């Protein structure tokens, strides 16, 4: 019987699954489930046609910057296609605008985003959680502060936020190319109490200042403690679980020994091989970089005619800040 069900394709299997849970096979829930399954099927077919991932560890190329050489006041010298097109004004709270429109706009427009792969556990230590977040960023280095935005899922608060509120501790782990499938597996909407460690096959490593484990496969991990949590109510559906912004202060760093310089002040990019999250289901890898040094006014103004002209027009003295 089971073989017969599987042989009839994903739509038939979904129908059987829905019926087993007394969910109408023609209702809105069934339509969403079947539509999602169909999109994933088409995506799998598209992936099958794509070239294989390049595992050769090709050296990351370092090039000149896009507009090199560049002078003060030049703006964008090498314009890309479309720079002369008009811009469209959008009200994120317009009555006919869905919140998913804002979601898709933001994740495709604010890109690439670093991925904070966060390990937490409940206050009693019985439930562990592991989840990736791209609403994440380092805030400062003294003290070493990080911020993560955690929105609700299906109107309910996420396990990570629940654990952070209970224990006030976590480990933030970096995500390298070789880890992405395992990391992505932890984003599945598993019931509370299901171990994402087992789902992903990733390995726990001990921490020293917090209870949650580090991810052994991560090149760089940060033990951290919650400094503050600020919650914001949802506008689209008042009464649902709020979005939370969590501030985390680092208490320990862990760096893979071969991936950093002698005093552990710099991590080599070709060892870290970080990924950035883009729009939709896409990720980006780093294959090329360029340097753009930040200059000091007092060093530049005495040597640069353009800056001296700016200085004289503003009535400032050469060598002083304006």
From TrEMBL:
Domain Flavin reductase like: 108-270
Flavoprotein recorded as keyword: yes
Region entry Disordered, spans: 47-85
One term of GO molecular function: FMN binding
Cofactor(s) the protein needs: FMN
Annotated InterPro entries: Flavin_Rdtase-like_dom (IPR002563), Split_barrel_FMN-bd (IPR012349)
Biased composition (Basic and acidic residues): 47-58
Keyword annotations: Flavoprotein, FMN
Family recorded in the similarity comment: Belongs to the flavoredoxin family.
Name of the protein this chain belongs to: Flavin reductase like domain-containing protein
Species name: Aspergillus caelatus
């Amino acid at each position: 019987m089971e073989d017969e069900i599987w042989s009839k394709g994903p739509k038939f299997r979904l129908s059987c699954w829905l019926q087993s849970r007394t969910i109408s096979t023609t209702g809105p829930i069934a339509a969403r489930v079947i539509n999602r399954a169909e999109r994933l099927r088409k995506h799998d077919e598209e992936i099958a046609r794509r070239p294989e991932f390049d595992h050769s560890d090709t050296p990351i190329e370092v090039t000149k910057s896009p507009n090199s050489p560049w002078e003060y006041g030049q703006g964008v010298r090498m314009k890309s296609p479309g720079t002369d097109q008009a811009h469209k004004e959008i009200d994120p709270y317009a009555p006919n605008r869905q919140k998913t429109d804002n979601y898709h706009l933001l994740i495709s427009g604010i890109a690439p985003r670093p991925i904070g792969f966060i390990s937490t556990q409940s206050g009693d230590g019985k439930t562990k959680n592991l989840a990736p977040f791209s609403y994440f960023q380092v805030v400062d280095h003294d003290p070493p502060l990080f911020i993560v935005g955690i929105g609700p899922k299906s109107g309910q608060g996420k396990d990570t936020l629940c654990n952070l509120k209970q224990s006030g501790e976590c480990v933030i782990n970096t995500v390298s190319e070789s880890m992405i499938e395992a990391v992505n597996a932890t984003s599945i909407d598993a019931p509370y109490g299901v171990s994402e460690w087992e789902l992903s096959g990733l390995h726990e490593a001990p921490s020293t200042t917090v209870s949650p484990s580090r991810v052994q496969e991560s090149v760089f991990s940060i033990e951290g403690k919650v400094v503050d949590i600020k919650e914001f109510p949802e506008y689209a559906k008042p009464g649902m679980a709020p979005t939370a912004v969590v501030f985390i202060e680092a208490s320990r760093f862990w760096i893979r020994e071969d991936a950093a310089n002698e005093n552990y002040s710099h991590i080599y990019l070709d060892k870290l091989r970080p990924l950035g999250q883009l729009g939709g289901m896409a990720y980006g890898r780093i294959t090329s970089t360029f340097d753009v040094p930040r200059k000091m006014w007092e060093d530049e103004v005495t040597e640069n005619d353009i800056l001296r002209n700016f200085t004289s027009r503003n009535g400032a003295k050469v060598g002083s800040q304006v």
